[in-house]
Amino acid sequence: MSNQSLQSASAVPQFEIIEVDQKRVACDGGGGALGHPRVWLHLGEENQIACTYCSRLYVMRGHTPVETTE
Ligand SMILES: [Zn+2]
User: Fold this and answer.
1) For the chain, what is the HEC assignment?
2) pLDDT in tens, 53-62
3) pTM for this one?
4) CA-based torsion, 68, 10, 52, 62: positive or negative
5) Centre of ligand 1 from the C-alpha of residue 61, in Å
6) Domain range annotation of the chain
7) 7-28: pLDDT as tens digits
8) How far apart (Å, rounded) are the C-alpha atoms in residues 55 and 58?
9) Order of strands across the sheet with 57-60?
10) 55 CA distance to ligand 1 centroid (A)?
11) What CATH architecture does domain 17-60 belong to?
């Protein structure tokens, strides 16, 4: 057993993950200069949806986001 695993996974997502507790969420990018027109997003059966404007990932509370592999 090795205890020298000092390097943690560096897979830091470039987008925010926001927990929500309802299927329908509105996103406006947080407002301000980084904002965008408010859009309504709907969490599908996967319980997660990424905003097409700001790439924020909305996930149902308690749901583990599924990493998309490209
Ligand atoms: Zn957005």
Assistant:
1) CCCCCCCCCCCCCCCCEEEECCCEEEECCCCHHHCCCCEEEECCCCCEEECCCCCCEEEECCCCCCCCCC
2) 999 999 999 9
3) 0.71
4) positive
5) 18
6) 17-60
7) 555 555 567 899 999 999 999 9
8) 9
9) 17-20, 57-60, 48-50
10) 6
11) Sandwich (2.60)
